[in-house]
Amino acid sequence: MQATDATNMKEVTQQAWNKKPMIISGPCSAETEAQVIETAQRLANTGKVDVLRAGIWKPRTKPGMFEGIGAKGLPWLQQAKKLTGLPTTVEIATGKQVEDALTFDVDILWIGARTTVNPFSVQEVADALRGVDIPVLIKNPINPDLELWSGAVERVARAGVKQIGLIHRGFSSYGNTEYRNAPMWHLAIEMKRRNPELKIINDPSHICGRRDILMDVAQKAIDLDFDGLMIESHIDPDNAWSDAKQQVTPERLGEMISSIIWRSEDTASQEYHAALEKLRQQINHLDDELMQILSQRMKIAEKIGEYKKNNNITILQTNRWNEILERAFVKGEKQGLSKEFITRYFDAVHMESINHQNKIMNA
Ligand code: PEP
Ligand code: MN
């Protein structure tokens, strides 16, 4: 058993917070005292986990689903911490929940995706955090809106919280996809670009919604230089009271963390830097050429715009747009470009063309 007095736990929490990668694991929900403690002990035995998570209050989509054990589970986490030395983290969504979590010495708080979307709730949580020295992680909102995510960060920062981190857990979308929540990596990358001082960790569990693809997402996050992972684990995943399909046993979690290929952002190797510099110059050169070509393409679109204007023809002709896309899919595939990229790229090019033509038409 390890010392878990308050000062020592602050230090242990700081070490976990500053460690790269920071690994957070534990059940989606705290269910029983025995389940929390056994999960914590088995996680601690893997030696791969820095922070123990457990949902105490669960915001569920439909009433009647398990909505969390409530404050009665907080002493279980305290006990798990006492037995393992692992700092703890829970999701909080109201001022009262912040208060309760602090009363029971939770070490790190997180704001869930369904809370980040709601400025009233975020503000209430931020107000409860005023004057409190505790690290706070903020999940992305369920909808792909970086301003909402940034707004939540700003509210918590304005309340005086010094240590803020981000959790990328994917975004909901309509219809079935491979993922429970689409990762939309570009949004996480953009958030990281805007806030280089904030750590960002990835939550493969809520992105995937299923165990079999957790590793791919976790590895991708590490390849993208994320600062850590939060992955749900359960002593009996199939019988978990929430998110059963995506949880793994503590031992499997340990294996997963061991089999990730950890990469660093930089190296002292001169050969590496020289080679990279050369290749980056080539990329810059090609990017310059691409922009010149795009500009030429827009000039041609403008000429077409003139003809359309003179003959009173609409800018958009769906047939022609389909033809462009079909051609691009066929050619792109031969060049090793994905259909997804071709679609996005041509959408952007086509919109820019339309804007250029619009200017001509209405000049
Ligand atoms: C969770 O972490 O268990 C959770 C509810 O996540 P999210 O807020 O990402 O849905
Ligand atoms: Mn969950």
Can you describe what's shown?
- Strands 1-2-3-4-5-6-7-8 form an 8-stranded parallel beta barrel, surrounded by 6 helices.
- The protein has helices at 6-18, 33-46, 74-84, 95-103, 113-116, 119-129, 146-158, 185-194, 204-208, 214-223, 250-259, 270-311, 318-334, 339-361; strands at residues 22-26, 51-53, 88-91, 108-111, 136-139, 164-168, 199-202, 228-232.
- The N and C termini lie far apart (77 Å).
- α2 runs parallel beside α11, α4 (95-103) runs parallel beside α6 (119-129) and α12 crosses α14 (339-361).
- The protein is an alpha/beta fold and 363 residues long.
- The protein folds into 2 domains: 6-259, Aldolase class I (TIM Barrel, Alpha-Beta Barrel); 270-361, Chorismate Mutase Domain, subunit A (Up-down Bundle).
- Bound molecules: phosphoenolpyruvate (PEP) and manganese (II) ion (MN).
- Manganese (II) ion binds next to loops.
- In the CATH hierarchy, the third-tier topology of the largest domain is known as TIM Barrel
Bound molecules: phosphoenolpyruvate, manganese (II) ion
Q: What is the H level of CATH, i.e. the homologous superfamily of the largest domain?
A: Aldolase class I
Largest sheet: 8 strands, parallel, barrel
Helix percent band: 40-55%
Compute the number of helices.
Answer: 14
Radius of gyration: 25 Å
- The helix/strand class is alpha/beta
**In sequence order, what are the helices and strands, one letter per element?**
HEHEHEHEHHEHEHEHHEHHHH
Residue windows where pLDDT falls under 50 for at least 5 positions: none
Total separate domains:
2
Q: Please identify the top-level CATH class of the largest domain.
A: Alpha Beta
Residue fraction in strands: 5-15%
CATH architecture descriptor name of the largest domain? Alpha-Beta Barrel
End-to-end gap? 77 Å
Overall number of strands: 8
* Strand order in space, largest sheet: 1-2-3-4-5-6-7-8
Q: Which outline best applies? A: elongated
